[in-house]
Specification:
Number of strands: 29
Largest sheet: 5 strands, antiparallel
Mean pLDDT: 79
Strand order of the largest sheet: 2-1-29-28-27
Distance between the termini: 18 Å
Radius of gyration: 20 Å
Shape: globular
Number of helices: 0
Low-confidence stretches: 9-36, 335-357
C-alpha cells in the first residue's frame, strides 16, 4: 500500500482549491498547509470514485468531482441553508442515490449531488434540543435513527435516541445516552444499531431498545467489517475486536498502536484486513493485518488532529479531514518505499495519477 499524499483543500476564511506539490513526491508524505476551515466531516461518494464531499462549520457543503483538485459550493436552493450552514455529519444511502447533510436543526437531502436540496426526514425535536447525529439503517430504507441533545441554555444534560420505520412520519424513543459526544453506528446486521455516548457502548436488543453492552470497553469510535457483519472493531486509546456482533470484546494484541484517542476507524471493503485509524493528536495510521501492527502516515502532516476519514469507492484514495484542511492519500504500486520501519503491502491497482519519476 504505497502511495502519494497531498493537501487538497485549505483556506483562511473560505473554501478554495489549493493543491500543494509534495516536497518529495511519491514518498508517502503529507504536504504542509495552513487555513481555518472548521471542517466537520469528509465523505467519499459510494458510487463515484472521484467524487468527495466536505462539510464545514458555518460554511455548509462542498463537492469535488476530481478527487479534491477543485471544489464547488453546494449550498444551493431557496433559503435551504438559511437556518444554519453548520453541517455536522454527511450520510449517503446504501444505493448511493441520496446524500444527507445533518445540521443541528434538521436534515437536508439531495439526489443530484448537491445541485438542489430539500428538507428531509422530519425529526423528533423541540426548541430545547439540537441534532447530534443521524444514522440510516442499511437493511431497511425507511428506518432512520437520530440522537438529539436536550439542552438548557448552553448546557446539554441528556441525549435521546429515536427511531422511525416510516421515513419520519412517526418516531419512537428507544433509549438515551450521556451527552458527551453521542454518536450512532448502524450495523450491517439487520435492524441493529450501536451507539456511543460518554465513551460507553450501547446496542439495540432484539426488542429494538437501546441498552448498555455489559462488559464492553470504553470506546470513542466503531467500525464494522463489510465482509462479516458480526466482526466489529472499536477503539479509544487502543484497539478492541468483537467477533460475535458486539456481545463480547477483547483487546487486540498489537504492535505500534498510537496511544492517542481514536477519532475515526475505516475498514477497507476490498481488503478487510486493512484498517485506517484517525487520532486526536497523532495523525493517521494504517494496519494491514487486522490491527496486529500499525504504521504512521504522518510525514509532513502539519495537522495531527483528525476529524474524519473516508475511503473512495474503488479503494484507491483515502481522505483525511482535519479542522484546517482536507488531505488525500493516493495508493500506487510503483512509489518508493516509505522510510522507517515496516512497509505496507502494495495495492493490486495502479495509481490514477502518474507516479513520481
Amino acid at each position: 500500500m504505497i502511495g502519494r499524499l497531498r493537501l487538497l483543500l485549505a483556506a483562511a476564511t473560505l473554501w478554495v482549491s489549493l493543491v500543494v506539490p509534495s516536497a518529495q513526491a511519491g514518498t508517502n508524505r503529507w504536504s504542509s498547509g495552513t487555513g481555518g476551515l472548521g471542517l466537520n466531516h469528509v465523505m467519499a461518494d459510494l458510487a463515484r470514485p472521484d467524487r468527495v464531499y466536505a462539510a464545514a462549520f458555518r460554511l455548509g457543503l462542498f463537492r469535488s468531482d476530481d478527487s479534491g483538485s477543485t471544489w464547488t459550493d453546494r449550498n444551493s436552493g431557496p433559503d435551504i441553508f438559511a437556518e444554519t450552514r453548520d453541517v455536522i455529519r454527511l450520510l449517503q444511502s446504501r444505493d448511493a442515490a441520496a446524500v444527507y447533510a445533518v445540521t443541528p436543526v434538521g436534515v437536508l437531502q439531495t439526489v443530484d449531488g448537491g445541485e438542489s436540496w430539500i428538507h428531509a426526514l422530519p425529526l423528533h425535536t423541540s426548541e430545547s434540543t439540537r441534532m447530534a447525529d443521524v444514522a440510516l439503517d442499511p437493511s431497511s430504507p425507511g428506518t432512520v435513527y437520530q440522537v438529539a441533545l436536550e439542552c438548557v441554555v448552553v448546557e446539554c444534560i441528556q441525549a435521546f435516541v429515536h427511531k422511525t420505520v416510516d421515513g419520519g412520519a412517526s418516531w419512537t424513543q428507544i433509549g438515551s445516552l450521556p451527552p458527551e459526544d453521542p454518536r450512532l453506528f448502524p450495523s450491517l446486521e439487520p435492524h441493529r444499531l450501536f451507539a456511543i455516548g460518554g465513551s460507553v457502548l450501547y446496542r439495540t436488543d432484539d426488542a429494538g431498545v437501546l441498552a448498555e453492552v455489559p462488559g464492553a470497553p470504553r470506546l470513542s469510535t466503531l467500525a464494522g467489517d463489510p465482509s462479516d457483519p458480526t466482526l466489529l472493531y472499536g477503539a479509544s486509546d487502543r484497539l478492541y475486536r468483537s467477533s460475535d456482533g458486539g456481545n463480547t470484546w477483547s483487546p487486540v494484541e498489537d504492535s505500534g498502536f498510537p496511544r492517542s484517542q481514536a477519532t475515526a476507524l475505516v475498514v477497507d471493503a476490498g481488503r478487510p484486513s486493512t484498517i485506517f485509524l484517525g487520532t486526536a493528536s497523532r495523525g493517521v495510521w494504517i494496519s494491514e493485518d487486522s490491527g496486529a501492527s500499525w504504521i504512521a502516515l504522518n510525514e509532513d502532516l502539519d495537522v495531527l488532529s483528525i476529524e474524519s476519514l473516508s475511503l473512495s469507492a474503488d479503494g484507491r484514495t483515502l481522505y483525511a479531514g482535519t479542522e484546517y484542511a482536507v488531505f488525500q492519500y493516493t495508493f500506487c504500486d510503483s512509489c518508493p518505499m516509505r522510510p522507517g520501519p515496516g512497509r505496507p503491502l502494495p495495492r493490486s491497482v495502479p495509481s490514477r495519477r502518474p507516479s513520481a519519476p
